[in-house]
């Protein structure tokens, strides 16, 4: 699907968690397809580096917003102000966090901090970014929201209980939002990847991993064709294996 048919070519794309992994790959791929990019993440240094790469490699305009998504609702006024006046055609809610080692709930380190940090980063970020950007899409009757869920949302995952549950929330919210706003010209897609080669999966086996740039390219080709996707054929096969193993 040609994204230019779905959003205005002069539109900006907003990508959260844009300095590494899937978020960075989506930002590059969307710039390659002719869209300007707003990059939002925690590290200003990394934001500037990715912005420079996009401008040099793809010739698109970029803007950067430094934001720690583990903070609460009041932090989003900064983003709202920074996006004022921009026509945003696509929102990619990608930012997320987890701990790499599998642990039982009560064994989670610094659990009193970990719980609100993860909820703010994995759940609140998607809700607040959607709240900020969706109204202008509805007014134009055109727009795309891509929400990054996970293979782990497809069944209960012991030892990754909070992260997996947060991704269930993203998947269910996305599908409900798509049902509400599809008739208004808005596409909402839930993406449930398996193993993509990112910092978050660095400690896992290489078997089945897909480079982030390959994943972003293939997953973006499904926009407009399905509202719920694993992103690639390889990941769809991995999903089938998960169900067989139940």
How would you characterize the overall build of this protein?
This protein has seven helices and nine strands, in the order βαβαβαβαβαβββαβα. The protein has 246 residues and is of the alpha/beta class. The chain has a single domain, classed as NAD(P)-binding Rossmann-like Domain (Rossmann fold, 3-Layer(aba) Sandwich). The strands form two sheets. Strands 3-2-1-4-5-6-9 form a seven-stranded parallel sheet, sandwiched between helices. α4 runs parallel beside α5. The radius of gyration is 17 Å and the shape is globular.
Q: Say how many strands there are.
A: 9
Q: Major sheet: order of its strands?
A: 3-2-1-4-5-6-9
What's the CATH H-level homologous superfamily?
A: NAD(P)-binding Rossmann-like Domain
**The CATH topology, please?**
Rossmann fold
Binned, the helix content reads 40-55%
Span of the ends, CA to CA = 34 Å
Largest sheet, in brief, is: 7 strands, parallel
Output mean pLDDT: 90
What are the secondary-structure elements, in order, as H or E? EHEHEHEHEHEEEHEH
Shape: globular
CATH architecture: 3-Layer(aba) Sandwich
> Which CATH first-tier class would you pick?
Alpha Beta
Strand percent estimate: 15-25%
Radius of gyration (Å): 17 Å
Would you identify the regions where 5 or more consecutive residues have pLDDT less than 50? Answer: none
Enumerate how many helices there are, as a single number.
7
Broad structural category: alpha/beta
The domain count comes to: 1
Keywords:
9 strands; two-stranded parallel ribbon; Rossmann fold
Sequence-ordered SSE layout with sheet pairings:
Elements: E1 12-16, H1 21-32, E2 36-41, H2 44-58, E3 62-66, H3 76-82, E4 88-93, H4 111-140, E5 143-148, H5 161-181, E6 186-191, E7 196-197, E8 210-211, H6 212-220, E9 228-229, H7 233-244
Parallel strand pairs: 1-2, 1-4, 2-3, 4-5, 5-6, 6-9, 7-8
Helix pairs in contact: 1-2, 1-6, 4-5
